[in-house]
Design goal:
The chain has 290 residues and is α+β, with helices and mostly antiparallel strands. Among the domains are: 60 residues, no CATH class; 95 residues, Tetratricopeptide repeat domain (Serine Threonine Protein Phosphatase 5, Tetratricopeptide repeat, Alpha Horseshoe), CATH 1.25.40. Helix content is 61%, strand content 9%. The protein has eleven helices and six strands. Strands 1, 2, 3, 4, 5 and 6 form a six-stranded antiparallel β-sheet that branches. Strand 2 and strand 3 form a beta hairpin. Helix 10 runs antiparallel to helix 11. The longest helix is centred in the middle third of the chain and has 45 residues. The chain is flat, with a radius of gyration of 40 Å. The chain starts with a strand and ends with a helix. The N terminus is likely disordered.
């Protein structure tokens, strides 16, 4: 039994199909052999077992690359011609655009190398002098300077050397100095300006903002910063600020949340110093809760 399909002929024998291309190559006939892929002069013969007999697959013919190459070349030539026409039409605009980009890049490099880098070096020198006073607890001088050009204080570093890493660090130092001097509003102002990602310094600064709010009587706001500081999951710092948050909860009469914070210290930070006497804190909060 034989049929014709889409210009190709195929025959069915014993549940199998044999494909050939009689219209194109009349001298080539299908072959009866077990599963094979026989490539003739110009046509591929495929045999499929009966499980694939429902597929209508035409014969595969070799691609005539020689006929396609001129068309491909013509397409490439058209694209190139269009590109050349576009560039010729908007040549001035393109040159202006490239020139602007180059100028912007050069301006950024010049600003960095001739302005920021020298300022950073000077700021580091000024900061180091203030740090020496801070190290001996001379917070007033460290914050405001000693009246000389040599020591302008952390506030001076922030004001005169903005956009430098030293000025950013000076914000943290200035905030600590203000806290030590009981100037809690300015402590919050400077501490919030500090931008750092160190896993020890950043949460400590956040926690100190919480301390400042508590000192101002804004306990609820302070608790937010304590929990934020504890959220970094630092084995050393997290239990400290969880305990601060729990004590703050107790001061507000929220003993249930206090117990939750104490219990978290006991369960998750077993090796911390704060966890050593957590049972006593938990018992006290639970007794007050009743």
């Amino acid at each position: 039994m034989s049929r014709r399909m889409g210009g190709y002929g195929y025959s069915t024998e014993s549940g199998s199909r044999f494909f050939s291309c009689p219209d194109v190559f009349p001298n080539v006939r299908s072959k009866k052999s077990k599963n094979f892929l026989n490539i003739g002069d110009n046509c591929v013969f495929l045999r499929f077992k009966s499980i694939f007999s429902f597929l209508n697959i035409p014969c595969f013919m070799a691609t005539n690359k020689g006929a396609q190459e001129p068309d491909n070349l013509k397409t490439v030539e058209n694209v190139l011609s269009q590109s050349e026409a576009f560039i010729e039409k908007y040549q001035k605009q393109i040159l202006y655009g490239v020139g602007i980009v180059v100028l912007v890049v050069l301006a950024i490099l010049a600003f960095r190398n001739w302005y920021l880098v020298p300022r950073e070096s000077k700021a580091e020198t000024k900061l180091a002098v203030c740090q020496n006073y801070f190290a001996v607890d001379s917070f007033q001088v460290a914050l405001n300077g000693d009246g000389t050009e040599n020591c302008i204080g952390f506030k001076g570093v922030v004001d005169e050397y903005g956009m430098t890493n030293s000025a950013n660090l000076a914000n943290a130092y200035a905030g600590v100095c203000c806290y030590k001097l009981k100037d809690y509003n300015n402590a919050i102002k400077y501490l919030k300006k500090f931008n750092g990602k160190d896993l020890n310094i950043a949460p400590s600064i956040t926690g100190l903002i919480g301390d400042s709010y508590v000192e101002l009587g804004q306990v609820e706001e302070g608790i937010k910063y304590f929990l934020k500081a504890a959220d970094v999951d630092n084995e050393m710092i997290s239990p400290i600020y969880l305990k601060k948050a729990a004590i703050a909860y107790e001061s507000r009469g929220d003993y249930k949340k206090a117990v939750e914070a104490y219990t978290k210290i006991k369960d998750q930070y077993v090796r911390s110093q704060e966890a050593a006497d957590m049972d006593r804190y938990i018992a006290r909060a639970q007794a007050l809760e009743k």
